[in-house]
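pinned: reference chain
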Amino acid sequence: VQLVESGGGLVQPGGSLRLSCAASGFTFSRYLMSWYRQAPGKERELVAIISTAGRSDNYADSVKGRFTISRDNAKDTVYLQMNSLKPEDTAVYYCHPSATDYWGQGTQVTVSS
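pinned: its structure tokens
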């Protein structure tokens, strides 16, 4: 199993980033997919989750209205569009197939002026 996150970087407050997670080694379309994040000194927290077919999603209150999760089952990829970024969004972001122990290496997002 491989989960390869990409798209992170340094962005100013109010900016946008689009994260991608390319999955392989398991039947991607059968799994709910989530994005988590972990800030320094804090526990890993759930940011967003999407259903297997991509028809429903849910978000942490802190990102509702700013972040959008999506997936492309033909490409075995899940995305996280992040808009109106805030300094408190700074963290390492991970994708995660639900009910598994699979994690990628994460991608760093830093929001700072």
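why pinned: The two ends are 37 Å apart (CA to CA). The mean pLDDT is 97.
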